[in-house]
Amino acid sequence: MLTRYKMTMAYDGHLFHGFQLQPDQRTVQGTVEDALKKMTKGKRVIVQGSGRTDAGVHAIGQVIHFDYPGKTIPANRMILAMNSMMPMDIIFNKCQIVDEDFHARYSIKGKWYRYRVSLDHFVNPFKRFYTGHFPYQLNISKMQEAARDLLGKHDFTSFAASGGQIEDKVRTIYYVNIEKDEKENEVIFDFIGSGFLYNMVRIMVAALLEIGNGRRPIHDLKRVISAKDRQEVRQTAQASGLYLYHVFYEDIPQKYRQDQHL
Amino acid sequence: MLTRYKMTMAYDGHLFHGFQLQPDQRTVQGTVEDALKKMTKGKRVIVQGSGRTDAGVHAIGQVIHFDYPGKTIPANRMILAMNSMMPMDIIFNKCQIVDEDFHARYSIKGKWYRYRVSLDHFVNPFKRFYTGHFPYQLNISKMQEAARDLLGKHDFTSFAASGGQIEDKVRTIYYVNIEKDEKENEVIFDFIGSGFLYNMVRIMVAALLEIGNGRRPIHDLKRVISAKDRQEVRQTAQASGLYLYHVFYEDIPQKYRQDQHL
């Protein structure tokens, strides 16, 4: 008998070689699968994530599912058992028993990524693993205006790192918000979309920072999108600032559908 | 010729075996002295801190001084040179050339420590190195009332870990503030005093948390202080939540002299 569990987790990515299982590397998937192997006394339970995160990238709301063999464990007991076996840099915050038709990856309706950029003059020791760093002149309202050009359905070839294996590069961006956190001296970028290509958020942030710094015209992203050429944006913002913030399995709430009000 | 430099620094303590130089251990003092040794092409320059911080304890405003031999380097050049040689977990934020009568330790008029406690149900992966953790019931106004009993000049023997070598255990606490940070779900403790004994802040926080949890009567600290017995408080809050926040070399500003308004 198999029971399918959906679990929501946060992790500090700075000591992981990313989410996906790799031989001889410390990965999130590997760490969770090792714990499940102990619980099942040796059976391999495959963990399916909503998607991969790269080395150094964090998660606030990553979602996984797995099929647990043997006797069903109540969800509130499963979360305690799993948390007791996790290292300090992973925490499960939610656990539900779900139907077999739920799939952490294929049931997705959208994803929310957050990117934090520290504006401190020097790299802040407390933020070195948790933010990107941009100690240059930055006009936030320019970036806010530019970000509107990303909204809607586009071919994002120009924003996909080579190395991705996905052919179809059309995605829809539903929501972009860029805000200054005065207390932390950071800029926070939020992106909600149907899905994101390899490194796409980090490349969009890099391009937006160039606009905020005045090195690109304010509506340059329109041109970059239509060029369908990765060489149009050569920079990629650092992994340390990126957070998989939330995964939507229900329709995106109307308040996040800026694309419908263009 | 010697030039005395006063420098203010922040460090993330989680990968250091404390401030003080120790053979074969990574320490803050050792790291700074190694950099100075490179600058002086092999001469040892002794770094004097305002005081030690333990393994895992952080600093936002630690102050050091040292006497640099040879040609005087302007302060704005010194800070750039030093920062370029520091690892990512140390940053210098200020540098001044000072008179020989300035001493990072002996010129102190007071110190400010901050302690952060996360109230999250599980340990938050992003805060494991940066906060203490108290996932129990907590009444903040009780702690605020109790903290007033610490103000003023007292013999703090009950709050000094064994291992300290200091005979005179009389210190003055000028200011205590305890506040909830709703957004972070943390309690922030601030203490300003003439000086603090070994582990004193962490022991005071542990006792205050017991009061906030209802395991000690609200004015128990009066009794604990007069007992002059470390056994009265057996707990010590974790190192990870503690920050040396500021060192005062001038008179403590009036707004922080709560002890004068008792």
From TrEMBL, chains A, B:
Gene name of this polypeptide: truA
Q: What does this protein do?
A: Formation of pseudouridine at positions 38, 39 and 40 in the anticodon stem and loop of transfer RNAs.
Q: What class of enzyme is it?
A: isomerase
Q: Where is the Pseudouridine synthase I TruA alpha/beta domain?
A: 10-107, 146-250
UniProt similarity note: Belongs to the tRNA pseudouridine synthase TruA family.
Catalytic activity line of the entry: uridine(38/39/40) in tRNA = pseudouridine(38/39/40) in tRNA
InterPro entries referenced in this protein's UniProt entry, alphabetically: PsdUridine_synth_cat_dom_sf, PsdUridine_synth_TruA, PsdUridine_synth_TruA_a/b_dom, PsdUridine_synth_TruA_C, TruA/RsuA/RluB/E/F_N
GO MF assignments: RNA binding; tRNA pseudouridine(38-40) synthase activity
Q: Which GO terms describe its biological process?
A: tRNA pseudouridine synthesis
Could you list this entry's UniProt keywords, alphabetically sorted: Isomerase, tRNA processing
What are the catalytic residues? 54 (nucleophile)
Name of the molecule in the record: tRNA pseudouridine synthase A
- CDD domains xrefs: PseudoU_synth_EcTruA
- Cited PANTHER family: PSEUDOURIDYLATE SYNTHASE, TRNA PSEUDOURIDINE SYNTHASE-LIKE 1
Subunit annotation: Homodimer.
Organism encoding this protein: Lactobacillus ultunensis DSM 16047
Q: Where does substrate bind?
A: 113
Question: EC annotation?
Answer: 5.4.99.12
